[in-house]
Amino acid sequence: MEKKEPVELGLKLLGELKIVRHNEFRFITSDFGFVNSFIKMESQLFTFEQPYRLKEGRIAFIKQGYLQVRINLIEYTLEPGTISLITPNTIIEAIKISPDLDMKMMAIDNNFLPIISKDDFFIHLPQYPNNILFTLPPQEQTRIESYFTLIWNILQETIFRREVIQHLVASLLYNIKCIASNTQNTAKHLTHQEEIFQRFISLVNTYSKKERNVSFYADKLCLTPRYLNTVIRQTSQQTIMDWINQSIIQEAKILLKHSDLLVYQISDELNFPNPSFFCKFFKRMTGMTPQEYQKKQ
């Protein structure tokens, strides 16, 4: 049996779709991609309510309409003027897209960036270890869009000016860093409980495949399990186990749809005691058996 590719939505997939690689709306290479108009793309890149793991980092700027999306378990509604910097290996799931949604987006492999260390998409933004999503002030929207326009215009040249694009992308990232710093300085600061919740969600996204004990996450955060339970419930109206279970289901869905692993192998991968336990858990959480989910279009 031919082995499927890893559970990732990346530039390789975009290149294999039945679309023109370099036309008036998109430009795609093995380590850099640019979509100049989402609304004019003729190929559907993802299915609703289906999680995907992004292989490369993304920079997206919403021009019009809105996108309701789940990013690493948390739901966001991205509206006009929103800039999003998404790190590699982030899990995204589209919930709802307005018919008039239009956005500009870049996909950037770590190795494309002209920086010394390529281990992290945001290695040059050390104070922002997670994804960045915020609405740009009106005057900054014009500046950011000018970056996209300049990069797109240079991509139209007959010869790919790789180094020029690399440094323009790096400059764009630094500019977004400056805007984010100023925006955060004037915005409402997170409460202590909100900070705990964000750190907790980050831990869940990292460890949920193996760690499902409340004490594990409490120890990581230097809190008592009881206090952590209280904070998470008050902040999100969900329990610690609710979030852990949602993370496990995301991983299960990705493996069921985008890998050649059999159900019993996925059960092992997600550290269930046996396949029967995994199947019952999956059906309780989704209303479908793993096999039914695999066949769902």
From TrEMBL:
SUPFAM superfamilies membership: Homeodomain-like (SSF46689), Regulatory protein AraC (SSF51215)
Keywords, ordered alphabetically: DNA-binding, Transcription, Transcription regulation
Listed GO MF terms: DNA-binding transcription factor activity; sequence-specific DNA binding
InterPro entries noted in UniProt: Homeodomain-like_sf, HTH-like, HTH_AraC
Pfam families, sorted: HTH_18
The organism's place on the tree of life at top rank: Bacteria
Transcription among keywords: yes
Domain HTH araC/xylS-type: 198-296
Protein name, as recorded: AraC-type DNA-binding protein
Organism: Bacteroides faecichinchillae
Taxonomic path: Bacteria, Pseudomonadati, Bacteroidota, Bacteroidia, Bacteroidales
